[in-house]
Design a protein that fits this description.
Layout: E1 4-9, E2 13-19, E3 25-32, E4 44-45, H1 47-63, E5 72-76, E6 82-84, E7 94-95, H2 103-121, H3 130-140, H4 142-147, E8 150-152, H5 154-163, E9 167-169, H6 170-174, H7 188-193, E10 203-205, E11 210-211, H8 220-223, E12 228-233, H9 234-242, E13 249-254, E14 258-265, E15 276-281, E16 284-291, H10 295-306, H11 312-319, E17 330-332, E18 350-352, H12 360-383, E19 390-394, H13 401-411, E20 415-417, H14 424-437, E21 451-453, H15 457-475
């Protein structure tokens, strides 16, 4: 039986699936790991926990199949930084996109070179930018800088363990803040300004580059001679896996974080740095914005504020009985600072309009609405340039019909969902792997949406008024 394996390495877990040429997923596994916060503002992953999760997922799937896969293709989260020594050993944790320790360095760079470097690379200057993290290491941990042989992201470090080669696809490389949009190579000026030598960066390769497992890997007996396709970033692959490869539909992903993206030919940056522009593969780029505050806000609400054993699967339906606007309760969702569209790492969350009649269900509804409002802000920036007519949803929030309908009502646009909604990035990796190896796979564009949520005009008018209030609070700096 011919089959493929797609892998999506995320912030909270690694997912892997066995996919058939007709696009069906016949086996799936997931391995979670903790996001660690040793100090305020720090958000780290243990690189070896990531590696163990990758090995575990692959070993489990491969043990269930009688033959080897035609290929294995990779998707991974962006903006992580892992410093590796000459032996490939990680000498730092993975400093993730959610980490704000480099806020001072990011602000200093923003004041001096932030605008020009953004136009060069497409990556806004913010603590999530690996450039700021490298500057932080140089100031705070010069001892580690001296030992660093390679500045890796999540995927390049894992591929280094699997293949023995320090390589990084051009899509994930775009998110490093060091890739020149015009030349497609590492930018010499920025690297020189940061004191980065060319040999301290992975070799940049195509999203369809193929490598093979090294004999030293514990997976060698299982996947010897199986093509390992580099793939792309989770953002780019979510668009590809959802079939959102133009500008009339926008891809909206809400998982731990959230992102709104379109795919466009060529590079497009924003004059006031509200959006990113990352390579997707070939001549295609994704333009959009990512939010720090997606499902992680709901997790915090349940575990730390409400301190309840009631699951989110039970809490979210409770919110459905509360009317739109949560009876005056409004949340500014910036628990982890924010990326798009305000790019303010110092922004904080607020609960506004709290009164005696408000209970758990009101809080849950207000949080859900706040995540949608922030995503809608990003969508509106893209609507300034593109004729967006529908939203294609992906990520964990596709499991919540009430939340999907809420997004349709707030945006005034249809929200479409496919069966692969929770696995869009993983499916995008498989599609990329099939293209790289010349094998067959059904394309998402060949499939109709499995479900469509149409906006309700009456609720949309209510939400418009609440959204205006949401924006007024942000403009007046009341997120404190």
């Amino acid at each position: 039986m011919q089959y493929y394996i797609g892998i999506d390495i995320g912030t909270s877990s690694t997912k892997a699936a066995v996919v058939l040429p007709d696009g069906r997923i016949i086996a799936r596994t997931e391995k979670s790991y903790p996001l660690q916060h040793p100090l305020e503002g720090w958000a780290e992953l243990d690189p070896y926990a990531l590696y163990d999760a990758l090995l575990s997922c692959l070993q489990q799937l491969l043990s269930q199949q009688e033959n080897k896969p035609a290929f294995i293709a990779f998707s991974a989260a962006m903006h992580g930084l892992i410093a590796a020594d000459a032996s490939g050993r990680a000498i730092t944790p993975c400093i993730t996109w959610a980490d704000t320790r480099a806020i001072g360095q990011a602000e200093q760079l923003l004041q001096t070179v932030g605008s020009s470097w953004y136009q060069t690379t497409g990556v806004p200057m913010h603590p999530m930018n690996p450039v700021a993290k490298i500057a932080w290491l140089q100031e705070q941990r010069p001892d580690l800088i001296q030992k660093t042989a390679c500045y890796c992201d999540i995927k390049s470090w894992l591929l280094l363990q699997l293949t023995g080669k320090a390589v990084l696809d051009s899509s994930c490389a775009s998110a490093m803040g060091l890739r020149n949009l015009s030349t497609g190579s590492w930018d010499e000026t920025i690297c020189a300004a940061l004191g980065i030598k060319p040999y301290q960066l992975p070799e940049m390769v195509s999203t369809q580059a193929i490598f093979f497992v090294q004999p030293a890997s514990p997976l060698y007996p299982l996947i010897r001679q199986v093509p390992l396709v580099t793939g792309a970033s989770d953002g780019a692959l979510s668009n590809i896996g959802s079939g959102v490869t133009g500008t009339e539909r926008v891809s909206l992903t809400i998982g731990t974080s959230a992102a709104v993206r379109v795919m466009v030919p060529g590079t497009h940056t924003d004059r006031v740095m509200r959006t990113f522009c990352y390579h997707a593969g070939g001549d295609q780029y994704i333009q959009g914005g990512a939010s720090n505050n997606g499902g992680i806000l709901l997790q915090w609400l349940r575990q730390d504020l409400l301190r309840t054993d009631v699951s989110l699967d039970q809490l979210i339906p409770m919110a459905a009985v509360i009317p739109p606007g949560a009876e005056g309760l409004l949340v500014l969702p910036y628990l982890l600072g924010e990326r798009a569209p305000i790019w303010d790492p110092r922004a904080t969350a607020s609960i506004l309009g709290l009164r005696q009649q408000h209970g758990q269900a009101h809080l849950v509804r207000a949080v859900l609405e706040s995540i949608c409002y922030n995503c809608y802000q990003i969508l509106q920036v893209l609507q300034e340039q593109y004729p967006i007519k529908a939203i294609q949803a992906s990520g964990g929030f596709t499991q919540e019909p009430f939340w999907l309908q809420m997004m349709a009502d707030i945006s005034g646009l249809p929200v479409q969902v496919s069966d692969s909604g929770t696995d869009a990035a993983l499916m995008g990796a498989v599609i990329t792997g099939a293209a790289a190896t010349g094998t067959d796979i059904i394309q998402p564009g060949d499939l109709l949406p499995d479900q469509e949520y149409l906006p309700d005009g009456t609720r949309h008018l209510v939400y418009r008024q609440v959204y205006e209030r949401f924006q007024q609070y942000i403009r007046h700096g009341l997120q404190c």
